[in-house]
Amino acid sequence: MKKILIVITLTLGSLSLTPLQASDAAAGANVFNLRGCVGCHGASGKMPIANYPVVGGKPADFVAAELNKFRTGERKNPIMAPMAASLTDVDVDNLAAYLAAQ
Ligand code: HEC
Q1: Which end of the chain is more exposed for a tag (fewer CB within 10 A), N or C?
Q2: Average pLDDT taken over every residue of the chain
Q3: Rounded (5°) CA angle 81-86-29
Q4: How far apart, in whole angstroms, are the C-alpha atoms of residue 3 and residue 35?
Q5: Has this prediction a pTM greater than 0.90?
Q6: Is the CB of 83 within 6 Å of ligand 1?
């Protein structure tokens, strides 16, 4: 019994070292294309249509921070607010990883 408890403790201990959620650039690419971000920010976020900003290649921290500002209303924009509103925290992390890698 004692042995089993030790094994369980060790297993739980090593699990907690694994990050709860790692950002996933491939999932971010899917969100970027499926949610229509690509329609304004262009392929890889780098070929913007009209005057929309380039977002591909921007640092992940910046992308995540700006998306969260649109989500909370701290940054107001009638186009981006509704785009960002439906994103989850995981979407934001994945989009940030994807765009930073462009
Ligand atoms: C209909 C066009 C349109 C779509 C679709 C769109 N955006 Fe935007 N995006 C904009 C505009 C316009 C701005 C600039 C807003 C401003 O001036 O505050 C912007 C700004 C941003 C910024 C901040 C860039 C900076 O340099 O400050 C990020 C990040 C961003 N968009 C990501 C996304 C993501 C991710 C999606 C998809 C969920 C998306 N956008 C969908 C038009 C769009």
Answers
A1: N
A2: 87
A3: 100
A4: 51
A5: no
A6: yes
Taking the mean position of all CA atoms in its chain, how far away is CA 79?
A: 19
The two structure tokens encoding residue 62: 């910046």
DSSP 8-state code for residue 62? H
Closest CA to 100 of 65, 49, 50: 65
Class of 20-100 in CATH: mainly alpha
**Residue with the two structure tokens 């089993």:** 4
Domains of the chain by residue range: 20-100
Residue of 83, 91, 95 best suited for mutating to test ligand 1, as the one with most atoms within 8 Å of CB = 83
- Looking at residue 52, the DSSP 8-state letter turns out to be P
pLDDT of residue 51: 84
Residue among 31, 41, 54, 90 whose CB has most ligand 1 atoms within 8 A, to mutate = 41
Higher pLDDT, 60 or 22: 60
